[in-house]
Design brief:
The complex is a heterodimer of chains A (360) and B (310).
Chain A (H helix, E strand, L loop, with lengths): L2 H16 L6 E6 L9 H16 L3 E6 L6 H12 L4 E4 L5 H10 L4 E5 L8 E6 L1 H15 L4 E6 L4 H17 L4 E6 L6 H13 L4 E4 L5 H9 L3 E4 L12 E7 L2 H13 L6 E4 L6 E4 L7 H15 L10 E2 L5 E3 L31
Parallel strand pairs in A: 1-2, 1-3, 3-4, 4-5, 5-11, 6-7, 6-8, 8-9, 9-10
Antiparallel strand pairs in A: 10-12, 13-14
Helix pairs in contact in A: 2-9, 3-4, 5-6, 5-10, 7-8
Chain B lengths: L7 H27 L7 H19 L2 H25 L4 H19 L25 H5 L4 H19 L1 H11 L1 H6 L4 H27 L11 H11 L4 H23 L6 H21 L1 H7 L13
The chains are: A alpha/beta (360), B mainly alpha (310).
């Protein structure tokens, strides 16, 4: 645990003990990476700052960064609950079971788990439809690749990541039938060394577009060093690497959701919900498409973005077959969110055309 | 599966880059162990080098100043070890472990404000024509300076240990500190210098990671490289040329693992990820199976405490 966060929590504990701030709402955040990762955790922390900005003195926030997914997360959450948190956001898929466990021990504390699927009376789940952003990335990638090889750095083979790969692939293939995806699983959300190595290997094997579903900017740096390679910012804008290699990005925008949920706790109207918003609701943003992308590609990518936003187009629209050739969606059919293994929420299969296998 | 996508030339070139941090740390540790000191703090010294080099490079905008400060940072941490083990005669194993834990913690604290920052780019060697020669060009003539520095250092250490008087004294101290002391050599001084050299090398290795290979700072970014460096020294049976071989082997497995994945080879990744460590264990087992050889190679006074009164 970082010294700063320890001090922050100690300070909060002391002020809480004096009882002067009894009417404030305390909101805790559990982060999987450092707040300075420039990606996933950075955006969650911006959401926390938005809560502070919106409520000022009426709210106190606390956070712990770089919490490993596993038993240690349970300790951190318990600690926050004991320090009087009214609402706790646990911001990584791997905190799912820990959140449920701790929530059972503290029925009066509200929990919000990001990207998971287990709910209870005091545990809500929320996620963003990142796959809509992946569709836009795939569209640009298919147009931009000259080698017809797109590299993809996966974190863990979980539905969220597999959905992203599928969405990017089918939209790349729609504009470039020869496109091939090379996928490396890093088995981490945040490890710049591994991410950089993976990006380098993909580039060496001919990829001139690198997509990442890991949180650091290391793949951007590797692409920049390699020269003629384009990338997309992940979770955050990563604009420091534009206009090239970073040509666009998926930006997670948690602020409005965090503010709304904090408000609900203050008003006593909080209820366990499942939220899954996309580009339309503003939870997923598409970062500016830079000058490295030709104007016509930029225009068609923005048209795709807008059609996803207004709901006139679904990123998974049939006809789509699974990797083994069996029919997943018939022509015109769109994917359901919740339909067991066939639904988006639990998607565990690749679509037709991807040539590697989903690891177990 | 498409193995033809893996270019052997690029594979060799990238394994040289991937191996450089552990090569630098291992060659430093070899000198330390040759002087009869076992410093298990390599990981701690590496990460101190990584953050001090990164911070200095960001603050001054010069990668070279960064590397210099990385060497100083690693050496500074090793001085703590030197004082504790050489003057206060503390247990080397325990002190070395403590040094690793201390280095990891201290570097995390120092690095708080450096997470997510872009360091200045360290220049690559770009020789017109020569860098473009097929096969040889990418492998030999297109790296950044750390790759060449590491190779030079290995050659230098080999030459120093084999052909110089200083190298002979260092080895004498490592084989029998009592005899060396009786001959009038300053055992403690020789060892402190060796420890500082090891610290500086480990620091450079750390900076090669944070300034060249990644390049970025993250808490705990060495992720076990220091321990691999220690294993390589044993694997190499304390011979500089074999350290080079060992480091490239380890670097090679790490890079090949990713290459196979990208080429779609359906070997579970876990096997590939643990293969460098498995190879370490196998090599250690094979080596220690032949006791006579192991004893021949290990410095006889390795890890033993020296005091002039004994």
């Amino acid at each position: 645990m970082k010294l700063k966060s320890i001090l922050a929590i100690a300070l909060l504990a002391m002020t809480a003990a004096t009882g002067t701030l009894a009417d404030t709402t305390k909101v805790g955040f559990v982060y999987v990476g450092p707040v300075g990762d420039g990606g996933w955790t950075y955006e969650h922390d911006k959401g926390r700052e938005a809560v502070v900005a919106a409520f000022g003195d009426k709210v106190e926030t606390m956070y712990v960064e770089s919490v490993p997914e596993g038993p240690d997360a349970e300790r951190v959450m318990t600690d926050m609950a004991l320090k009087g948190a009214d609402l706790i956001f646990t911001t990584s898929f791997g905190y799912m079971d820990q959140t449920i466990n701790v929530a059972a021990k503290f029925p009066n504390v509200k929990f919000e788990h990001a990207t998971g699927y287990k709910q209870s009376d005091n545990v809500s789940v929320y996620s963003a439809r990142f796959y809509e952003g992946r569709a836009v990335q795939g569209h640009i990638a298919g147009h931009m690749t000259k080698s017809n090889i797109v590299g993809y750095i996966g974190s863990f083979p979980i539905p969220e990541v597999i959905r992203g790969i599928n969405a990017a692939y089918i939209h790349a293939k729609a504009v470039n039938p020869d496109v091939q995806f090379k996928i490396i699983w890093a088995y981490t959300w945040f490890d710049p060394t591994k991410e950089a190595d993976a990006a380098k290997v993909l580039i060496e094997q001919g990829a001139d577009v690198v997509l990442q579903h890991t949180d650091s900017t290391a793949p951007q740096a590797a692409a920049q060093a390699a020269g003629n390679v384009i990338t997309f910012g992940q979770a955050s804008d990563m604009a420091a690497y534009g206009p090239k290699p970073r040509v666009s990005s998926i930006i997670d925008n948690w602020g409005p959701y965090y503010i709304a949920r904090t408000q609900a706790v203050m008003d006593g109207t909080w209820a366990s919900t499942s939220t899954w918003d996309g580009i339309g609701a503003g939870m997923v943003g598409i970062g500016e498409i830079t000058s490295a992308v030709p104007a016509d590609v930029k225009a068609s990518a923005e048209a795709l973005r807008d059609s996803l936003a207004d709901g006139s187009y679904h990123a998974f629209t049939g006809p789509l077959n699974k990797q083994d050739g069996s029919v997943w969606l018939k022509a015109g059919e769109t994917a359901a969110d919740y339909a067991g293994p066939e639904g988006l929420a639990e998607m565990g299969f690749y679509l037709e055309g991807l040539d590697s296998e989903v690891p177990n | 599966m498409d193995l033809s996508a893996i270019s052997p030339t690029l594979l060799v070139a990238s394994l040289m880059v991937a191996a450089t941090p552990i090569l630098l740390a291992a060659i430093g540790e070899l000198v330390v162990e040759k002087s009869g000191v076992l410093n298990l703090g390599v990981e701690g010294m590496m990460i101190m080098g990584a953050i001090s080099g990164f911070a200095a490079a960001v603050l001054t905008g010069s990668p070279m100043v960064g590397f210099l400060c990385a060497a100083l940072g690693g050496a500074a941490l090793s001085i703590i070890f030197a004082i504790l083990t050489q003057y206060f005669l503390s247990n080397q194993v325990a002190t070395g472990l403590a040094l690793t834990l201390f280095g990891l913690g201290l570097s995390a604290m120092l690095g708080q404000s450096y997470v997510g920052i872009k360091p200045p780019v360290s220049a690559k060697l770009e020789l017109p024509l020569i860098s473009d020669i097929p096969v040889m060009g990418p492998i030999l003539f297109s790296h950044d300076f750390t790759v060449y520095a590491a190779l030079t250092l290995v050659a230098g250490v080999w030459w120093f240990l084999k052909y110089t008087r200083g190298g002979l004294i260092l080895r004498a101290v490592g084989e029998s500190h009592d005899a060396a002391h009786a001959l009038g050599y300053k055992v403690v001084r020789v060892r402190i210098l060796a420890i500082m050299f090891g610290g500086a090398c480990a620091g450079l290795g750390g900076a090669a990671l944070s300034l060249v290979r990644v390049p970025q700072w993250t808490e705990g970014m060495t992720a076990g490289s220091g321990w691999i460096a220690l294993a390589i020294v044993v694997f190499a049976s304390w011979k500089p040329a074999r350290v080079l071989l060992g480091a490239y082997l380890f670097g090679g497995v790490a890079v090949l693992q990713l290459n196979l994945q990208a080429a779609g080879v359906s070997i579970p990744v876990e096997y590939l990820s643990m293969s460098p460590y498995l190879i370490t264990i196998i090599v250690l087992v094979v080596m220690s199976a032949n006791r006579s050889k192991l004893v021949l190679n290990a410095p006889a006074a390795l890890g033993r405490v020296f005091h002039a009164s004994r």
